[in-house]
Amino acid sequence: MNWLQRRVRPEQIRELSLLLLIILAVTIFGSLIPYYYTSRTFDRIAESVTIIGIVGIGQTLVVLTRNIDLSVGSIVGFTAYFIGALIAGNNGINPLAAILLAIAMGAVMGAINGVLVAWARVPSIIVTLGTLAIYRGMLVDLSGARTVTSDSLPGWLLNLARVNLLTIGMVRIGALFTIALSMVVIFQIGTTYLRAGRCIYAIGSNPDAALLIGLPFRRLVFLVFVISGALSGLAGFVMLARFGNITVEAGRGLELEVVAAVVVGGVNIFGGSGSVVGATLGAVMLGILEQSLLRLQISEFWRDALLGLLILLAVASDAVILQRLRTLWGRAELKVAPGMPPPVPETEKGVTNP
Amino acid sequence: MDRQRDVRPIFAAEDPVRTSPESGDAVPILEMRNIGKSFDATQALDDVSLALYPGEIHALLGENGAGKSTLIKIITGVHQPDRGEIVFAGQVVAIHNAAEAQRLGIAAIYQEPLLFPDLNVAENIFINHQDRGQVVGWGRMFREAEALLAELGVALDVRRLARGLTLAAQQTVEIAKATSLKVRVLILDEPTASLSAHEVEQLFKLVLGLRSQGVAVLFVSHRIEEVFQIADKVTVFRDGRRISTRPRSETSSQRSITEMVGRETGLLQPRPPVPQGELLLSVRGLSRAGVFEDVNFDLHRGEVLGFGGLIGAGRTDVGLALFGIEPATAGTIILNGKRAAINSPREGMRLGIAYASEDRRQLGLSLPMSISANISLPVLVRYLNRVGLVRTSLEKATAETFRKRLAIRTPSVDLAVAKLSGGNQQKVMLSKWLNTRPSVMILDEPTRGIDVGAKAEVHNMICELAAEGVGIILISSDLPEVLAMSDRVLVMREGRQTAILNRNEANQESVMRAAMGQTSDRPAEGAST
Amino acid sequence: MIALGRLKSWEGLLLAILVVVVAMNVMRSPYYLGIDNVVNLFQLSIEKIIVALTMTMIIVSGEIDLSVASIMGLAAVLLGCLFKAGIPMPAAILIALLSGLAAGLFNGFWVAQAGLPSLAVTLAGLIGYRGLARVFIQDHSIGGFPVWFNTIGQQRTVGPLTISIMIFFILFVIVAVTLHGSGLGRLVYAIGNNTQAARYAGVRVKLIKLCLFGASGLVAALAGILYGARLGSVRGDIATGFELDIITMVLLGGVSIFGGSGNIIGVGLSILVILNLRNGMGLANITGDTQTSVVGALLILSVLVPNLMHTLKTKWKERKT
Q1: Distance CA C54, CA C219 (A)
Q2: CA of A7: which chain B residue's CA is closest?
């Protein structure tokens, strides 16, 4: 047990138990729902997990730094729509260019968030609440409230959603799923093996020490918002490929599902712990719950109520665990609310006691 | 927490005195020249010069408030000196922040290490290495961390999270961090305060090892015996000035203590002794797990009981326990003959206890609010009319009364407290607690950081209060103040009570001895006679 | 009076902005300052501005409540469902109000007692209460309320003013007096300023925060009911997204997001600014989403501008010494 305590991070235990819960849920639902173990079920679940999973990666990075990004839903809708309109207008456009454009578009919108949070020191809850509205408004304005329809889109785009790269038994792995999976792998590796990734954890774990030691605090906070925006742009492209028909309402409310997935996946709302894989597992769990409840003909409307409850439970249980660990850690830590900028370090304020 | 320890010398008493490798014509790695620094009205450092040589352990001794931590903060870039200059390796430098200090090769280890709890030990050690490239080689990092720790002679699982490490282990990680960055000047600020004897030995082995590698070590500690085991040179600070710097062989612990405390006495009029009133407060076996243990004393009406001891001895914690902010976990409190369980500040206030915090800015006052608003806050109900509205005129009248009584200098009592000087802020905080009409008043560092005039006024207030029959607990690091004001002095050390000294027994030396754990022929005293 | 002092620069700035916005609107429409339009101006966002009053107290205490719009929706939906189920209106109204109170106290428990961050708790509430509302009403729409009920929201009863507007002004006075004149208000400011110091002074921080969240929930429920009365029908997505306007009104009014400062006059002025802005944009045929994006920009600016001014001030001070 002691070995376990020392080697394994608490969040890894969390993720492991989440995985077990997922297996448990699938087993239970499988016994209750006829024709559960079919490719159709997997497809449905994969559908929602793909988009939320991609955005969840970016949100994880943001939350790790003790911030939050509520504008992701608007960024996803914005990119889905305008890349869609672009492709619809130029059917011959290079697919890779389209994807890169979507990512770049999202990155720019994320960069605006990043500048305001990292340098202007506006709390991220305020910034992203504002840009949520601003980007959505821009979408409605510039689009003229038209719709992107699937018949205006070239075949390759719509085929992305249908093509099967790999089939393992009932599990059909399509192109979009592969994109999502590869993003998860890339960023999990990045946060584990890149120094910048580890610094992101450090920033959320102890912002005072991070500033004092001289870690590139502002640059990294800026970066995580850019990444969050970029991944939201990618998710917008995926949404376009998946659904074809994009209205100005696309992505509305997505940010809430993403935050739910991230929190359920064990990423601590105070930052510093959690992982990309965990957030993805959270997205999987929520996707399973949603689809299964639907199949059980429990009203889909229970989903949001359940979502709220899950977030609360996840945050509460993490807080309890954190409290226990903090008493072990010994000293009283200055509590900074998530979404708020870190406290000003000693060098920037006067200290009266010599 | 293992506090009983015999201090075993690490090397034999006949060891030749280790002087710095090249004495006389040596070039100091770090030199502070005529450093001056003041905060508000206090002169924290006054014309201080200090030179640190490579391969030398330089100990810095001084009471609380002598200026040691200010000097350290200047060296590590937290503060900038008002006067004087810093010379590093022959060049005049200005150190603006921690990163610059680190670049020069200056590292500091404090009582509370700055680690990242969610990262593992190896990561914590190497987190700020610019030259390791962008990719983390976990295997290599673990191996190098293990090697580093092995070099230091420490066994620690580098894979474990920093969260949950003991304080000693955390400090070891900090030292490893410093070593990995090729530190040239290592500052240890009270590193041994919470360590067991064995851990202290380990730490000293590390420090000696660093010394042999040519690192200059500045070692601040209150443990005189430890200091005299390991130091090559001893500097004594007092009241912001450097009093002396001597090689270890030319001084002794006794001499150092005398230099630490010796000052012109007679500036403070001792409070005339007052006949002891009836028993007000009786504390037996008071403990708070992991913080302080077995505190016993009686407090009488009109008595001033001074609490002496070093910072971190646990005196504030006892105050917090009596007031209900951090309640005691064991022991009894008897107030006016009745047993009391004090679990919240409200309960404390209801029982007539008041606690004036040592941190007036963060804990004692609401800075943006006005003087009168601050004064009325704990007893706001007194100022509400039947509908619950605040009777500001009544509030103002109260504030005016205190303004006169404590001579608070302000154009108006509606002024925000933030705009007042330190001394006046302190008076506002004291007024606030006087306004609760306590029978037991706990004052925690009431004259810290305020000018001489305000200090005298506060002392007058204490005398008046005592004359009115209030029992006062005076927690203070200002020895002359404690000695002048108190009827008796309770001394604490590392969470335990080491002595209660009567007026005729209490002097600077006896208090310091009890505070620092010097073996004396006088056993620790329990409850008053 | 607590925290009022003299009219500081922020309120002056707001006043100037208000004058500009109103002037621009008057130029567009000559009837702008007529009594009909003024009432209309208030009516369009009356529910939001009612909730902004209790939100002010929450933010001054150093917390935030993101779930208010969802509580509005929940209360409105509950009202409709109970009505449809045959419960008499007054009872339905009472139950809907109590549901808001319960939701608020639930929030307050987790924030005050369990010590969880209010951002996370009320974010969960934002999702959860909306979900609950949907569970009750599915995707139906319920209307056909009794005439007297619709009158509350729509008809002018006291002179040119509707009951909602009356309620707003009464609540405004109550919050103004509480925040700036009462002992409770004093304690709320103390808690927002420095929670630790307040605790050290014996203030019952947990109890007060619990009450504030309870009040926020109750008033949100009231606003939701009034909204339903004004619209004449309720749906599952009623009042979605209102929290943006509400929070903006408070922060733009000079209340610091960190708590402990700000006053009701500023909030009153910023309410007027936003009302006139929205009204003016409506007159200029600017769509709802675009209007919202302008409000979003205002939200960011309301924190950005003071930050910048503060940085400039400290830089200027440094240059002097």
Answers
A1: 7
A2: B160
Q: What is the CATH number of domain B1-115+182-263?
A: 3.40.50.300
CATH number at residue C82: 1.10.3470
Residue C102 is part of which domain span? 49-308
Residues of chain A neighbouring C129 (CB-CB closer than 8 A): 308
pLDDT digits (tens, 9 = 90+) for C128-140: 999 999 999 988 8
CB of C205 closer than 8 Å to CB of C62:
no
- Please list the residue range(s) of chain B that carry CATH number 3.40.50.300: 1-115+182-263, 299-516
Choose the mutation target among A129, A300, A347 for the interface with C, i.e. most C CBs under 10 Å: A129
Total-model pTM: 0.83
| H or E element in which residue A82 lies | helix A72-89
Please name the amino acid found at residue B253: S
H-state helical runs in chain C: 9-28, 35-44, 46-60, 68-84, 89-108, 118-137, 147-154, 163-181, 183-193, 195-200, 205-231, 242-252, 264-283, 288-320
d(CA A297, CA A304): 15
Q: In order along chain A (354 residues), what is the average pLDDT of each group of 10 residues? A: 55 82 87 80 85 96 96 96 89 88 96 95 93 94 82 81 75 84 94 91 90 85 97 95 89 92 90 92 90 78 84 85 60 44 38 30
Strands B338-340 and B330-335: antiparallel
The verdict on a CB contact (< 8 Å) between A354 and B132 is no
Q: Does B330 touch chain C if contact means CB atoms closer than 8 Å?
A: no
- Decide if A301 touches C, using CB distance below 8 A: yes
Task: Write out chain A residues lying below 8 Å of B40, CB-based.
Answer: 352
Whether C199 and B357 lie within 8 Å, measured CB to CB: no
Min CA distance, A339 vs chain C (Å)?
A: 8
The domain made up of B299-516 has a fold known as Rossmann fold (3.40.50)
The predicted complex's ipTM stands at 0.86
- Asked if the structure places residue C123 within a domain, the reply is yes
Q: What tokens were used for A233?
A: 């742009």
Q: Pick from C206, A354, C204, C3: which is nearest to B40 by CA?
A: A354
Contacts of B356 in chain C (CB under 8 A): none
Paired strand residues for C222: none
* Number of domains chain A contains: 1
Neighbours of chain A (3+ CB pairs under 8 A): B, C
